[in-house]
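Handover notes (outgoing to incoming on-call)

Open items:
1. DUF2200 domain-containing protein: sequence verified, structure written out, both below. Nothing else pending on this one.
2. Nothing else urgent.
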Amino acid sequence: MQITNEHNEKMAKMTFSSVYPHYVAKVESKGRTKEELHQVIAWLTGFDDQKVKELIDEKATFDTFFKKAELNPNAELITGVICGYRIEEIDNPLTRKVRYLDKLVDELAKGRKMEKILRKA
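DUF2200 domain-containing protein structure tokens:
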């Protein structure tokens, strides 16, 4: 699927707080925990639980969320298709980062082992 400028703008303006409850529901419905979700978020962004809460409370957009993040150097190892988009073909850096997070949440919900999700050797 082709990503449009409008799609990229929508991703930038979407708030993390609007998506976070869906992440929690998705992983918990598959038997995973909120703590595991936070471990995945921390691996990708460097955010601890307190920082995640602050970003939710301030209703940070994904643009702000990822500007404050220290992206894991192994994030580029996250590949595959999520929401119909091949991650490694996404040109817009912010949209790619949002899809990295979506992919990690999806892998967690599907029961993948944490060391595989966190791209450990």
